[in-house]
Design goal:
With 540 residues, the protein is an alpha/beta fold. Helix content is 36%, strand content 23%. Helix 1 runs parallel beside helix 3, helix 1 crosses helix 9 and helix 12 crosses helix 18. The chain starts with a strand and ends with a helix.
Length: 540
Amino acid sequence: MSITKYIFVTGGVSSSLGKGIIAASLAKLLQARGYRVTIQKLDPYINVDPGTLNPYEHGECYVTDDGAETDLDLGHYERFLNVPTSQSNNVTTGRIYQSVIEKERRGEFLGKTVQVIPHITNEIKERIQILGKSGDYDIVITEIGGTVGDIESLPYIESVRQLKWELGDDNALVIHLTLVPYLSAAGELKTKPTQHSVKTLMESGIRADILVCRTEHELSDDLKKKLALFCNVRQEAVIQSIDASTIYDVPNMMLDEGLDKVTLAKLNLEDTTVPDLTHWNSFLTRHKNPKGKVKIGLIGKYVELQDSYKSILESFIHAGAENEVKVKVKPIHSEYLNAANIADKMKGLDAILVAPGFGERGIEGKIEAVKYAREHKLPFLGICLGMQMAVIEYARNILNLKDANSVEMDPETSDPVINLMEDQKAITNMGGTMRLGAWDCQLTEGSIIAGVYGTKEIKERHRHRFEYNNAYRDQLESAGMKTTGINLETDLVEIIELENHPWFVGVQYHPEYKSTVANPHPLFVNFVAAAYSFSKSKSK
């Protein structure tokens, strides 16, 4: 039986350098050589998971098939590798400490004093190796959140030191991602921040095997030689990561730099095949050479931070390439959207997507956007809360139920067209208690959505607590809002469509979580195609 190899990706100098993209790019190259690869993220914050974090704090919360609420980097992993992640792919300090404390309460440590070393570090090492011990992977890449030197990251760094020693140099390596800044006043790149970062890592007992250097300018051979000498790595292990026009360029850039070759050599793995990136590069060609363009309004309340809707934005890139069109997304803040300015804000759009979210802020603006799309026959996609807003808008303006609302926004509404699920009413804890993960859905034959998927049954990922109220289903159906997707087990409505509208779909689930480069999500592909048809019809 072959031994699983482990790669650890650490960061220094600055946050947001792109450890997740480097990890995903290396994984893609190794996968393209025939190796079975997965990636996991270790997050140093004390939250048990990001499920209760505001998107302004941490970007979007990504959800896996098995219902894990995770860091958004897991979305990158899935989009690059086209392999599902799970609960085991994201671990936080909160979860580590929670597990250790529960073991202590059960008496599993036999009266020992529970300490960071060895109890916390042992728990971390155990979590790191869960995926490797499954037998499903040849290589496990572990991204350590934060930067070297952060107090909260120290237990993870120590765990990596121990594990690297236990596994041996042929079975584990450390990639350190740093910044090589350009000082315009001096007109040169500076290596000192990287040297200090590597020194900090070495003070923790870890020597970087490979340096990946983020930079705005090309690194000369002399600069690479200097970095190699002062950072104690081979020159071929100094990898340049220059700014790219799209994250999907990075695997090819890492291939040109030889990151995969150096990695395989250090792990004593065969380097006999050439990475097959045919499908990947076909996607890139279509993405960079569109034959048309569309402009889609993204109506949300976290639009100031792009990472809040990361999966949606990436899904538009996948769907745009599939349709050979450039999708220009116009973020529109729903909090500042109203009946007086709606026409001006929607001007020039070819479609509208009303985004997911929680809480009452910006709700009325979302409802105005839905109404505009309905009345102006603009292609419309509502996701999760966006679908619920479509139901509320229709109930208010077509059924004339002026008080129609969600009990999330108005617990006392006389017409709760969106209600709390029965099994949610007694829940007081917020974290991990929503309807999460993949759920089955039966589609109605002849509907738009059945045409989108080309099948009768689908399984999609959810993350919500409130639901379409079945008490209003007959009224809404009779008035033209059709239910075209249902979970048969619970009889919960998953999808709505409008009669007499060219393309109007609301889904309770999150299709953006399952869109990848290899398999663009059909709902986004179809939505972008509808937007392009609308765009062409305007120019006739």
